[in-house]
Design goal:
The protein has helices at about 5, 30-35, 40-60, 65-80, 85-115, 120-135, 140-155, 160-165, 175. It has about 180 residues and is an all-alpha fold. The chain has one domain (about 5-10, about 25-175): TerB-like, CATH 1.10.3680. The longest helix is centred in the middle third of the chain and has 33 residues, at about 85-115.
Length: about 180
């Protein structure tokens, strides 16, 4: 099974990514998470940190991060990024904390840096992870859907890419589930 970081092109065959480093857009958020991941190569740690941060961004869109969302973020980092569980827990906890403290100022910087280095396919794969996190508690709120759309825009994805990724999660969208069936008038 191909990991999410492999699908995102950030690692190949277990190696650290070979893409350019984050420069001006490297934020304090990413650096703090990277500092806790000293066992990883620096470039890979920055990407894992940014990945975790963007996941926490959508999880906190409705002003709360549920236990289910936290567990999905950790699982994605273990299963898809190949991190040991203890590192995944650190990444998620640090990302959640940093998002709470600096979310308003860091969100755009971190997401745009990911968008700068990712291919179209990698960005779409990231969208699917974002929907998986938001659906973890069996409901994608309008706020979560809006933040994912914003992230999609920041990644410079086409609207059709967003719609296709979201379509797979329509059953979890609160706005669709909460509608009353309309009968004949």
């Amino acid at each position: 099974m191909m990991s999410i970081l492999e699908r995102l092109g950030w690692i190949t065959g277990g190696e650290a990514p070979r893409v350019g480093t984050m420069s001006a857009a490297e934020t304090e958020t990413v650096r703090q998470i990277v500092a806790r991941l000293d066992q990883l190569e620096p470039e890979r740690a920055r990407f894992v940190a940014a990945f975790g941060y963007v996941l926490s961004r959508v999880a906190s869109a409705d002003m709360r991060i549920t236990g289910e969302e936290t567990r999905v973020m950790e699982r994605l980092l273990v299963d898809e990024a190949g991190l040991p569980e203890e590192q995944a827990v650190i990444v998620v906890q640090m990302a959640k904390h940093q998002n709470l403290l600096f979310g308003g100022t860091e969100n755009l910087l971190v997401t745009r840096e990911l968008g700068r280095v990712a291919t179209h396919e990698q960005k779409v794969a990231l969208l699917e992870c974002l929907f998986a996190v938001s659906a973890a508690d069996q409901s994608i709120t309008a706020a979560e859907d809006t933040v994912i759309r914003q992230i999609s825009d920041e990644l410079r994805l086409e609207r059709r890419d967003f719609i296709e990724a979201r379509r797979k999660y329509n059953a979890y969208r609160a706005v669709l589930r909460d509608r009353e069936p309309r009968g004949p008038a």
